[in-house]
Amino acid sequence: MLGTSNLAxxxxxxxxxxxxxxxxxxxxxxxxxxxxxxxENRVTEDRNIRILIAQMLVVQGALEEGLKKFQELVDENxxxxxxxxxxxxxxxxxxxxxEAAKQFETxxxxxxxxxxxxxxxxxxxxxxxxxxxxxxxxxxxxxLSSQK
Length: 148
Description:
72% helix; mainly alpha
């Protein structure tokens, strides 16, 4: 099975599977990888795959389910900034701007100043704050499912 150094490969494969409308197979592949990481006590890889699964739920349009998965990740490790950023984006998509703002504030408080991709992630958060689901749908079209 794929090792820790191949997480980027899993991400790429998941995106290709999504674009090829292979959602169930994609989630099966990710779930098996996550279960293996958990069984082998590879905590970081397990968490990273769980974040990827939640992100793919969002990409598939299952916003509420993705939100639930991110909340589980927050409950397990409230110091990880990534779920807060993702929750902020989801709340923005749901036009729940007050909740989104709270999540983005927590993200800003937790993300390390020296984090290599901070500038990019800050831009994503800033864009999501001012973008409705309809605007994102127009911009990304078929890439974002129309489910709520």
